[in-house]
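Archive entry. Fields below.
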Amino acid sequence: MTLFLTALFAGLAVGSVYGLIALSYTVVFNSTAIFNVAQGDLMMAGVLVSYFCLDRWHLPQIVTLFVILAVVVAISLLEERVAVRPFVSKPVVGLGWFIATLAFSLVLETVASIIYGQNPVVPIPGALGSGTITVDGVHVATKFILAFVTMIVILVALEIFYKRSWLGTAMRGVAEDREVAALRGIDALRISRLAFVIAGVVTALAAFVVAPIVSADVSVGLTYGLKGFIALAAGGFGSLRGCVIGGLILGVAEQMFDLYVSSNYEILAGLIVVLIVLAVRPTGLFGRTAVREV
Amino acid sequence: MNDLVSRLGFDSRAWIRWAFPAVLIIGLYLVPQLSGSGTFRLGEYEEILAFLIIAVALNIAMGYGGQYILGITAVFAVGAYGAILVAKYHPQNVGLVAMCVVGGVVGAVGGLIIGLPALRVGGFYLALVSLFAALAIPTVAQQWGLVGADTGIPLYAVEGWEAKLGGETLYVIVVSLVLLATLFSWALVNSRVGHRFVALHTSPQLASSIGIRAYRTQLLAILIASAMAGIAGGIYVYTQEFFAPGSSSVQFAVLLLAGMTIGGMGTITGPLLGSAIILGINQFFTGFQQYNGIVFGVLLLVFAVFLPNGLMARLTVLSERLGIRPRPPSLTSGPALPAADGAPPPTPGTVVAATPASQLPDWPPVLGADNSSPLVVEGARRAFGGVTAVDDMYLTITRGQVHGLIGSNGSGKTTLLNLISRFYSLDAGRIMIGDTRLDNQPPHAVARAGIARTFQSPKLMLRETALENVIPAVELRVRCTGAESVLRLPRGVRVNRQARTEALEILEALGLQHVIHQQAAALPHGTRRLVEMARAIALRPSFILLDEPAAGLSPVELDLVAEVCQNLARSGVGVLLIEHNVPMVLSIADTVTCLHQGKRLFQGTPAELRADTSVASVFLGIDEPLEASS
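PREDICTED_STRUCTURE:
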């Protein structure tokens, strides 16, 4: 039972990070109709910044957080400018934007591996130290709790933003119908930039909380990016809550696979989850409509 | 001499078109002689050649079929593992052929496992699910003892294994296999199967309007590409005698994508060219490997944004300018010249006058001709959110009659049409032909039941010629198997030719002979409408639904459309004509239905409409019949 609970908590923590990435995807998709493949690598960039700030330069955690925010949002905006805007300003034909964001992610990953060099994978200290909280004899690392709480806070913040604020409504409106939104005086390009800022912030926070869990490693970008997509597919496209639930399901499924099947083949858990979801309920758990024709 | 050459349709500089690839192919065969390199180098060339087959496969699925199975390297890996395992356990009995077969079968199964579920959502889901598979398979293989875990399977070390082919013989065989794969992709693309891929890639609505089964077609594209990638896996392990988790990766998938995009997806040779460049750089300029990702990434980005059609499209334009490749005839090149009988075939640039409309051929129904009942809409209702677009709709389209459908914008005309062709589902009511219900069938089944349609904004395959836009519709009627068409078996050849001939006849009847070889993208709006109409007629339907066919047409074209509608009706086809051009509708329709805010305001003959006060009061705000006001 203890083993099960330990695995469950670890799953919820890692799942929270998948959920955060899925949220970033959704924020971008909801206002640009573009699925940003580079989102995982943006998080990876944040993790590496975290490594440099904390392990190399020994900066305080709070400073590190702001550096990550600045760097990730800056890269996010750069991506919006070079890889996304050309496709937002004209009608979307084919999947050119997919290739463009994939290309951006390739560049980002290469640059990161040149900067990071051949360094071995190093653990990164967590914001709340390396302590644990004991509940009923089960030790839960504080870094896990931080990841989960961060995700919940961001989910609530985003839901309020989309429902209550004028800007949030405008962002949803642009995704719904760009022309009608334009007639109402909403600038699709500004909205697209704003979406990348918000997604950048969410990704930066994800990087900050995930860094102590995954250690500094260039390959996390691709892995987490793809798993974030699985979270999204499982939860349902376009639904914020779906992202979170999907992330948690994937995280827990992976840990249970580790525990009861084999930890060597953990990655299969993701493949199984996505294939089952698509076979049984293609729109995901919370998806109301099918994905728009792309 | 020159005159003879040009009369045969050859440009005097056309030989350059053929010389270039010929030199390339011969050069490819002679690489071992030219580079004078040892067996080791040959192995590296063979590795790239195996990868080129994956590029050809990906081009079929992605460039033509529009199916973004980016993680095709996963399929390549399982095919390779399958082939190498068989070779490991039966080293004496298997050779290149057996390994290719095993690789192909395993690859096809792998592709199905990825494709079947992902296709239910479509779009970029397939891309991401397959990329995840491309990530997962090497990761799993790293841990799996059966496939040699991290170190892989060294086939050369297996006792009893001896490759029967090697050295330059093997090299020549592998080059031939690449050429064969390329030839196959050309044959496929220029067959009924390829036509369906492109139609579906262009627009799912277009495809289903000519009876193409979307899911099956997408799956076929994935299946063919996967089998080819698996075969590439078999060739890879035969030539390299080794396979390990590191032999395929997500990065490799991205490299392939870069090569394809740069070379030009959706052309036969572009992906080969681009992939050869990218993979060559990656393999032989190892000093910069660290920075390759940046170079390739930036190139990929630049091409995706600025040159989405790739290098090959540029080369085509260039060779047209240099006169190596004949330019498509220009639309503005001279006055209309009547073609005299016995004259040489019109040279590019000549515009031929339209057939006089009165000489239109008969187009009796073929699809759905066994059932002579009218098409009946009963109590149809459809709401979008709070707006009821169509409500309590009754409509009968009789064969051999023109049924006009008029009404202001937003009155529900197009929605009704979309309900009939099943792009929307009904909230209430039914749609029948005799006893056959249509409202529970998929859109392609509606087309196959003999209901053709056009779209309010024409949906054409823009990169294809007018003729190529019509051919797929004929191909729904003139049947042969896909394999017969691809492999040019006797029946396939006959049917391919028949489809082409019939498409030509219909285009010529509509006076479009001067644009048959024009890319649809180059056609003016009115001509696109006519091409789309030709495509709908090419189905030889029992019913044809025309959505504002006259919008944006010149007066001459307008008369033609009216003639065509009447001619269709004379031939026994039921015509539903949605039009804002009320005089035209009233002059040719047998029955007119007028919609207002989703409801039927009026139904009757044109004469009754003229005498009716309700229509006039709604549209003109007067209380007199139309007749009196005009």
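CURATOR_NOTE: The first strand of chain B starts at residue 153 and ends at 154.
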